[in-house]
């Protein structure tokens, strides 16, 4: 609550005296007590006194009396320390604020004890609900404590629970990436996928196949290569890419594309004149600063966070029995 000129907090008693009403009446007005019989004139006097004195209600007391708060919790495993995935927090925070809520963020770094403590603290503060998020799209087992409130899974899903989930549309993203190459006239296109089983691995491959089918091009499994999902993986397959005689390559992520750049350059090939390259993720620190800048597809982290809040507040529906899939937009640059 605000302070008077002597530095002491303004109290309900002072508001009551200024408005000429009882302390109980002030409490009913500032806590918006339903069913309280307060005349419009008395209510207005209280509101005027609150404004004039700068009185600020005790948020904790208000939470305890109402049974809920204007807080939304977000429990994350590592996204606060992952630059591009930190946009999930940004999107959730902006959307929460838009609807009168404040985001409480706990970054657990995957520590189960910290996760349990964070959820417990949020439940004690009677949050409106909790977003439970991971820094990359994967299956999870939702912590049991989440079942004590409303919750939404963000960038992850749990097949064992009916809880709503919001995830990137990996399949559509693979389609979008491949179409960047198709639209530039390429018809013999390789896909460098990852060796790690994940929704991204299967979804992006399915999208690649969808795009080829849509263009009337038969799928050729010999043009799909598996590589470690980092720079070394892309570098290692450069020779095979050259030998396949392709004119375009869709890489599982931007780090793989960065390695492929290095490998193709050492083989005397130029991008995009000899081979066009498309990545995935839109990691700005990589994609925008390669030479030439990398065409890619963005993971919609900001929108994942924002959509998670909307689903939690009932402002957006999530399909029953399946996650809400968020579109992955193309980011065309000079590598195609």
Automatic annotation (TrEMBL):
Pfam family, one: LacI
HTH lacI-type domain segment(s): 10-66
Annotated keywords: DNA-binding, Repressor, Transcription, Transcription regulation
PROSITE patterns recorded: HTH_LACI_2
GO MF: DNA-binding transcription factor activity; transcription cis-regulatory region binding
PANTHER family according to UniProt: HTH-TYPE TRANSCRIPTIONAL REPRESSOR PURR-RELATED, LACI-RELATED TRANSCRIPTIONAL REPRESSOR
The protein, known as: Transcriptional regulator, LacI family
